[in-house]
Write a structure and sequence with these properties.
- The protein is mainly α and 70 residues long.
- Helix content is 29%, strand content 0%.
- It has one helix and no strands.
- It is elongated.
- The model has no long low-confidence stretch (mean pLDDT 77).
Length: 70
Amino acid sequence: MNEEEPVVDLILIELSSEQRERLEHLADASRLRTALYPAPKPRPVRRRSRQYPGGRPTWRAPRLRRSYIR
């Protein structure tokens, strides 16, 4: 692919003045929300150890289903 060719063809859309104002209002609200409430930090990744390669075991005993023959 040549660097001269655009990757995406831009489509120009004509907006009415009301639509443009609404879009600007939504963009401003989005920027304000991003500034006031930053994205939460992701939880730390659980590290695997050699002792427990699949992660820490759960020590709860599994419940066995018993089929009763009558």
